[in-house]
Amino acid sequence: MRDLVLLPGFMCDADLWRDMEDDLTRLGRVHHGNLYDDDSLDGMARRVLDAAPERFVLVGFSMGGFVARVLSLMAPERVAGVAFIASSARGYTEAEDTRKKATLTIRRVRTDNEPTLSGALHPDRERDPVLLERLRGMSRRLGKAVMARQVALVRRDGYAELERITCPALVVACRQDRLRRFEETECMAHHLPRARFEVIEDCGHMAPLEQPHTLAAILADWIDRERL
């Protein structure tokens, strides 16, 4: 049976994948990568590799996609295929990095009075109390220390690096994603030698929460077609 290694996004834990659990377990054994104890993409990738099976299909959501890129280049012989969901390979300028860290610190540092994360959702779902509470719940469980480490990540431009990932790749963009520009995700597919590009309609950034079964079906079809 194949193994799937799932890499979550910023301040997300295993609950991110909860609604996909049944679909994913039909595809193989599910492993959740630890992106919580390191403050660099290299460190995260090494920790995931240390705990991962010998060969696996890698699925990276958002920030997890940045780690998936690094990991796929670090140990190409172990990655059967890699999926990037609502992700990017664009680096941040120094000004953008400073501004993002300041904004995220203000938004996330108080777990007892967090503002809603409505911008992560489709405009029609931005006030959905269940989805918002799941986002807040993941943030509260992970806490300030994890937030500080993930905010500290340095993200350099990695589009050229994608050209060296030769295993089958899947790139999934979300049409109404307000956190990740559509063009950034689409550009990943242009740089990956063996990429399949899919778009989920009626979906904001949080595809595993908003369109779990659609996303699972895309993953299943890709895995089947590539015989991973």
Automatic annotation (TrEMBL):
<feature type="domain" description="AB hydrolase-1">
    <location>
        <begin position="4"/>
        <end position="217"/>
    </location>
</feature>
<keyword id="KW-0378">Hydrolase</keyword>
<dbReference type="InterPro" id="IPR000073">
    <property type="entry name" value="AB_hydrolase_1"/>
</dbReference>
<dbReference type="InterPro" id="IPR029058">
    <property type="entry name" value="AB_hydrolase_fold"/>
</dbReference>
<dbReference type="GO" id="GO:0016787">
    <property type="term" value="F:hydrolase activity"/>
</dbReference>
<protein>
    <submittedName>
        <fullName>Alpha/beta hydrolase</fullName>
    </submittedName>
</protein>
<dbReference type="Pfam" id="PF12697">
    <property type="entry name" value="Abhydrolase_6"/>
</dbReference>
<dbReference type="InterPro" id="IPR050266">
    <property type="entry name" value="AB_hydrolase_sf"/>
</dbReference>
